[in-house]
Amino acid sequence: MKYLDLNQTIGDSVARYPELARVYMKYGVDFCCGGDRSVGQAINNDTDEGISLIDEAEKAIEFSDSHLIGETRSKISDLSSALLIEHIKRVHHAYLKEELPLLSSLLFKILNVHGINHPELFDIHRLFSRLKADLESHLVKEEVLLFPALIEDNHDICHLIDELEKEHDAAGEALHQLTALTDHFRLPADACKTYQLTYDKLELLVSDMYLHVHAENSILFKRFC
């Protein structure tokens, strides 16, 4: 029996089955900035391991459904807009505010120590620095301008949502570039503990941003525009 609907948008598939986020991230399939693509299109475009992905997705959905008999599926798309905004701020915004400065410091440290042998670190540091600045201003724009308007149920903010979605796209492209520059966060043979910590945190940043942007683009924003 097939559970994964290849014609459904990939954003909607994660909204219905949140456990698919882990599967998509494992195979490098973008479900946030490319959330309006069909599942089939996203798989075909983003990975060469589509058969393996679909097999894991089927198992994840089957396992989830088998544990939900007589229960109600709990997912962020069930939250009211006010509660969803609080979730985004408490989980994703708070994470970025704490981790971005720390990652900046760690990247500068390993650049100083390892840059002579790993010139890609200069590109990684430069790209991350731009991403950090963009995300910090993006968070302020959401918390000061967008979220209060949404709480007041102001639907005359589609121009701002469009602007923020474009910023999400730019951040998503930067994350793809970081993933490529780090060779999917694969450590070199001479990596120290700080190098490992930095790459681990960068990989977590990508995972969190995927979930963050999905919650906004595919769920929250669609309620208003």
Written account of the structure:
By secondary structure, the protein is mainly α. It has two domains: 57 residues, no CATH class; 145 residues. Helices cover 70% and strands 0% of the residues. It contains eight helices and no strands. Helix 1 crosses helix 8. The two termini are 35 Å apart. 25% of the residues are buried. About 3% of the residues have low confidence.
Q: What is the helix tally?
A: 8
The geometry reads as globular
Helix content: 55-70%
In angstroms, what is the radius of gyration?
Answer: 19 Å
Order of helices and strands: HHHHHHHH
Q: Measure the end-to-end span.
A: 35 Å
Please tally the β strands and state the result.
Answer: 0
Biggest beta-sheet profile: none
Q: Which structural category fits the helices and strands?
A: mainly alpha
DSSP strand (E) fraction? under 5%
| Domain module count | 2
User: Spans with pLDDT under 50 lasting ≥5 residues?
Assistant: 67-73
Keywords:
single chain; 225 residues; mainly alpha; 8 helices; globular
Task: Describe the structure in brief.
The chain has 8 helices and no strands. It is mainly α and 225 residues long.
List the helices and strands and how they pair.
Layout: H1 10-16, H2 20-26, H3 39-46, H4 50-66, H5 81-114, H6 120-151, H7 158-181, H8 193-220
Helix pairs in contact: 1-8, 5-6, 5-8, 6-7, 7-8
